[in-house]
Amino acid sequence: DFKRKENIDKWPKSHIDVKFKERRVKANAWDYNDRFSYADNRIKTSKYNIFTFLPINLFEQFQRVANAYFSVLLILQLIPEISSLSWFTTIVPLVFVLVITAVKDATDDYFRYKSDQQVNNRQSQVLIRGSLQNEKWMNVRVGDIIKLENNQFVAADILLLCSSEPYGLCYVETAELDGETNLKVRQALTVTSDLGDISKLMDFDGEVICEPPNNKLDRFTGTLYWKGNKYPLDNEKMLLRGCVLRNTEWCFGMVIFAGSQTKLMQNCGRTKLKRTSIDKLMNTLVLWIFAFLICMGVVLAIGHTIWETYVGTNFRVFLPWDTFQISAVFSGFLTFWSYIIILNTVVPISLYVSVEVLRLGHSYFINWDRKMYHSPMGTAAEARTTTLNEELGQVEFIFSDKTGTLTQNIMVFSKCSINGQMYGMDRLKKKTACVDFSFNPLCDRRFKFFDSSLVEAIKMEDPAVQEFFRLLALCHTVMPEEKSEGNLVYQAQSPDEGALVTAARNFGFVFRARTPETVTLCEMGRTVTYQLLAILDFNNVRKRMSVIVRSPEGQIKLYSKGADTIIFERLDPSSENLMYTTSEHLSEFAGEGLRTLALAYKDLDEDYFKVWMKRLLFASTVIENREDQLAVLYDEIELGMKLLGATAIEDKLQEGVPETIACLNLADIKIWVLTGDKLETAMNIGYSCNMLRDDMNEVFVISGHSLQDVAKEHILGLSRVSSAGHVEKTDAFADDSVFEEAIIAEYALVINGHSLAHVLEPQLEHILLDLACLCKTVICCRVTPMQKAQVVELVKRHKRAVTLAIGDGANDVSMIKTAHIGVGISGQEGMQAVLASDYSFAQFRYLQRLLLVHGRWSYFRMCNFLGYFFYKNFAFTLVHFWYGFFCGFSAQTVYDQWFITLFNIVYTSLPVLAMGLFDQDVNDQNSLRYPSLYKPGQQNLLFNKRQFFLCTLQGMATSFLLFFIPYGAFPLMVKEDGSPFSDQQAFAVTIATSLVIVVSVQIGLDTHYWTAVNHLFIWGSLMVYFAILFAMQSDGLFGIFPSSFPFIGTARNCLSEKSVWLVVLLTTVVCVMPGLVVRFLRVDLFPTLTDKVRRLQQSRKKQGPQEQNLRRVRRTSSRRSAYAFSHQQGFGELITSGKNIRRSTVSSLCSPERIAQSHSSSWIENMLKRKNEVSCASPESEGGAPKSVKGTVCMDPTDQAQF
């Protein structure tokens, strides 16, 4: 190793990286570390800088086929031989679109840049040349030794060297990483834990060889080389960027990863350009339209060639050709390009301007929605991007994190059963008063309980009740902190364990302090010290925790808490009757979605305990099968216990979570929960949210550890669903909908991370997807951040569905960036997910309104807008095509050039914008009340290739009528003075006026929801048309610009004739009436759900407001959630070793008298001699079954009857 270390300086950097795939970092050695070109600590989430903005942004914008298309047209218009239109008709709108989009993109990126600068300019204390100096975060380098103080963010991924706590311990909050607010413990190596002096740290020259940068938040592998020795490093020695130092005065660490190479930033991924499905469809449609345009150009060019050959030669006597045109074929070739320019308005550039304006408006509607404003935190919903709004109306899959997203990660002691008596009431009942704990000066003022009979039992000194709370105060691994008299703060490895200790505290059994050998309580005002003889710690196999203590009277007792099924198996027969009663209470607790634990105790004989302790000492020192031997001893002493009762804890869901999930399920949105929690915890949350129910046909649990096991479980599950005969194929949505299965039965799938790793292999991923899509609920547990992204990518790749990912921590960032739409929860758990998201708000329940109201409206408005836009532009443009057959295919325009320029920009732009911004088929209350209204968006029914074809067909028919009705009428018409209508200019004005009126009437018929803005824009645009028409064809403008305004007096002469207005009226009626009849018949004979709800809404509006009758369904699950512990090995060994006990204690505490026992002291000494392998794992909070779940029925019974 040392030879390789000496030779490394001679090798090229690229050879180092490829050869070893490892990182080498030396403390206080900048020159050595600089050879490897490691990333500095500057972060950059913005996409552009001042030099790259223009080329990159233009490149992104010209990925839109339409922008490239208009650029080509602009070039063609600059050629005078083929252009009959001025170049400004294209370049002005094109530049306008490019500038508007660029400004929007620059603004978005500038905010990202400001956020980066705010983080990069934070201050950190760095050890430089023998002293601590303040440096900006961006100047911190790999190998630096930095000092952190309490409540400071960790600047980079650092190796913990020492801290102010005993044995190099420190506490960190990882909310920015995983959304969990409970504290995690980290511990420095023993050899570095005493480097608290600046001089010692300056002399520290250890070298770390470790894994290369990666995104695995829960794993680190490395080795410290120092003074000729090697020391193993793991994740428990690391403080990751984004963590916050808590309850630790200071600590020192050595920077291992910095900036973009930190695990936090590795999980952020690259900022991808997200495009909506409508954007992608638009690119396809533009290509179709361009092909159609070429076909029209070819037809007209061929017609021109034939006309010139057989008819045009007769005109060359007084209309000679230029020398440039040498043949009819070449003239036809030039005419082809001329018609391409004239007919290009079938896809006007104003369409893209309007789309951007609409998206911006829809984004502001989300930002301004007061019903999505969370007043306790002062947080409003925010659309962080303006390009994905209509995609919100097409979501079929939601991938959600659990902790901090569905749950608040707050545990509340809600109910309990003691000696067969149930205590605790439903606090939602208005008449229930909160218990007064004023009798206890050490109570936690924030704790609330709603049954005063339990306090009365405590005051009456009921022995069972006292023993119950004594157990809660003794049997745990919580660490107390008392900075002032009575001001207690508990640091628990999981929130639910803290809730139990807090409950005991409020009922008079206050946990005050602990040492490695004692636990001190204040029992009803009396200080009592118990000798801690042993901790039988929790693990996933035991599912229980026990402590053995000696009371001041010398009595030895074992106290145990755990899963009811585990505790009941170990009870003494004398507790059988009590067990049955308690079991009934547990079932009731579970039915309310509460997490339950059973509590039991056992009196131990002194002689028996001494023998057992000797056997424990021996088992704890053996090398082979140590864990198995310890487990046997634990099982032996935990037999024959007496039942005390049970606890019920509420894992508080965020407000409205069950109702939101129920409503989204009714909208056919599939919700998958992807969580890092263990299987039991994830399932508990599933039951509490009503995603899992007892009445489901089956819940498939896949937890195999090998590829063969997983494949067998998958195939078995799929065969059960298929053989049950509950799945029917349907072709109704085969083209546009992702789901091709109509599920009659209800199944759920729960899969753990180990199995998921195998399932994501190519040979099994299709089976996973097939089985998952047949299930109503999918829960993936113990998944890594990368696996979350892989699951989302799997659905995106194989299913034509819009996906949405929602989370609140850095471990959700990859998933958020991979999904079509990313949503960040801007709660108290951190802002990493918000910074990477497309939309953010404070509570999961707002997702319901975001999708069912804003998303559906945005999709509905955009689809109506596009359909109408294509209709009016085909009607406007194709008049030139019909006119070509009557003008010798000469590429002459029907309309005045100014009308062509202003039609989309002025005459028809504002009405269609008003419709696209304000239109709504049903109001927001009914959008939420009838979630099935969301389904057309998922099935892509409102705007697809078929709808586009129908719109263009209607536009073509309208253009045909617009041209041929006036064309047929004009030869038969005469003016009032008897002269005929023979001029082309009057014909053009008549068609233009008819066109503007027809499209205005049509948009009036297409508008579902009229506002003052709609009226103003539609009728105002008509008035503006006539005002501009008369102004441009007036004598005054002709006198100033005779070549630009040739239609002098045409409008005045033409529109003063009654016969012209009769032609305009006839054209309007004939163009509009067929569509009106078809629409009336369709709504009357084949009404959609939207039509029915609109009719109901209108009838209710006439009747006046009515109170909604929303029926709630109570969940009646019999499942019990009994995992009020961390998912990993507990802190028992750490506590008994004394390494986490502070050296100073509160002066107000009475110094307890120690009872020296030879067997207990030797046991402790043995524990202290063990290797520095104490697992202070970062425990992930439990997510069991929270509060009572009440699913909302989104349609009242009277409405169901009407349907």
TrEMBL record:
InterPro entries: ATPase_P-typ_cyto_dom_N (IPR023299), ATPase_P-typ_P_site (IPR018303), ATPase_P-typ_TM_dom_sf (IPR023298), ATPase_P-typ_transduc_dom_A_sf (IPR008250), HAD-like_sf (IPR036412), HAD_sf (IPR023214), P-type_ATPase_IV (IPR006539), P-type_ATPase_N (IPR032631). Residues 1096-1120, 1174-1203 are annotated as: Disordered. The lineage of its organism: Eukaryota, Metazoa, Chordata, Craniata, Vertebrata. The chain crosses the membrane at residues 62-79, 85-103, 285-307, 327-353, 865-886, 898-918, 948-974, 986-1005, 1017-1040, 1060-1081. The keyword Membrane applies. ATP binds at D401, K402, T403, E497, F538, K561, R595, T675, G676, D677, R782, K788, N811, D812. One of its GO terms (cellular component) is plasma membrane. It is a multi-pass membrane protein. It is found in: Endomembrane system; Membrane. Residues 25-91 form the P-type ATPase N-terminal domain. It is an enzyme of class 7 (translocase). Mg(2+) binds at D401, T403, D808, D812. One of its GO terms (molecular function) is ATP hydrolysis activity. The active site is at D401 (4-aspartylphosphate intermediate). One of its GO terms (biological process) is Golgi organization. It comes from Oreochromis niloticus (Nile tilapia). CDD domains: P-type_ATPase_APLT_Dnf-like. The keyword Translocase applies. SUPFAM superfamilies: Calcium ATPase, transduction domain A, Calcium ATPase, transmembrane domain M, HAD-like, Metal cation-transporting ATPase, ATP-binding domain N. Its cofactor is Mg(2+). It comes from the Eukaryota. This is Phospholipid-transporting ATPase. NCBIfam families: ATPase-Plipid (TIGR01652), ATPase_P-type (TIGR01494). Its EC number is 7.6.2.1.
